[in-house]
Amino acid sequence: MWLAVRMDKPGGPVDWDGAVNAWHVAGGVYRMGRREWLTEAGWRQAYDDGVRTVVDLRNSREARRRDTDPAVTEQAWSGLRIVSAPTEEPDHPRFTELCGPYLNDPAHYVHNVRLFPESIVAVFRAVAQGAPAGGVVVHCAAGRDRSGMVGAMLQDLAGDSDDRIANGYARAARAINERYRTHGPPHARERYVEEAELAPLLEERGRTVVAFVRELDTGTFLLRHGLTDAELHAVRSLLGTTVVQ
Q: How far is CA 11 from CA 5, 46, 116, 183, in A?
C-alpha cells in the first residue's frame, strides 16, 4: 500500500511585487496570473524565495507584453528557466465545442485533460525537471482556471483535503474578480461579479474542482499517460510530500 505523507502545509498569498493572483500551493510550488505583471523587484523576490523555474500554461499567442505591463529587462529573470507548456490547443474544434473559446469553468477541466493528456503530462514533466534547481511557479493569464486546474491536481498530489482544494480555487477566483473590479476585465467575455452572485457560484465550482481531481486520481492519470515514476516522485518531493511503501 502506498501512503502519502505531508511534510508541510500550503501557504497563502504571495506578495512578489506586481504579481497578480499569486499563491503558494505547497512546498516549493506556486501559482499566479501572467508573469508579465511582475516588476523587476518582484522577479528578485521570487528568486529570493527559491523559484528557479516558471511554467507558462498559456498558448504562444498569449505570451506577450502589454503596454500597461511594467518595463522589465531580461536580466530580471536571470537564473530563472521559463518553460512554455500550454494545457490545450485553443483552436481545437472539440475543445471549442466543449469548453468554449477558453477554459473558464471547472466543469470543463475533465474535457481539457481528456482531450490533451500529453499536454498535461508536459506541464508536470516541466515541474519535475525544475525541481532539482529549486522552486517552481506555474501561471496562466488570470491565474484562475488553467492554473486552477493544474493547481488542484498539484494539491491532490500533495494530499490536500477537499476543503483546501475547493478553497484553492475560490481564493484565486475571488482575487482575479477583485482585480476586475479595480482594473476592469481584460475583454468582453469577463466581468466583475457581485458577492451575492459570486458566493454560491464559488461554492458550486469548488465542489466541481474537488470532484474533478478525486475522479481523475492525478497520480494514476499522469503515470498512465507517460509521466515516469521518477518524475512523479520529483513533483511530490517538491510539493513536500513523500511516498513510502
A: 17, 15, 30, 26
66's enclosing H/E stretch is none
Contact 57, 140 (CB under 8 A): yes
DSSP designation for 88: S
pLDDT digits (tens, 9 = 90+) for 147-199: 999 999 999 999 999 999 999 999 999 999 999 999 999 999 999 999 999 99
Q: How many domains does the chain have?
A: 1
How big is the CA angle at 222 (ends 173 and 218), to the nearest 5 degrees?
A: 45
What is the pTM (predicted TM-score) of this model?
0.94
Q: What is the CA radius of gyration of the chain?
A: 17
169 close to 106: Cβ distance less than 8 angstroms: yes
Q: By three-state DSSP, how is residue 241 classified?
A: strand
Is residue 165 within 8 A of residue 155, CB to CB? The reply is: yes
108: domain range? 3-244
| Residue 244: CB atoms within 10 Å | 8
Percent of the chain with pLDDT over 90: 90
Q: Which residues contact 92 (CB under 8 A, 6 or more apart)?
A: 115, 116
Question: How far are the Cα atoms of 39, 70, 215 from residue 17, in angstroms, in the given order?
Answer: 6, 11, 37
Give the domain CATH number at 213: 3.90.190.10
| 50/152 Cα distance (integer angstroms) | 22
Q: Given the C-alpha cell 534547481, which residue does it identify? A: 133
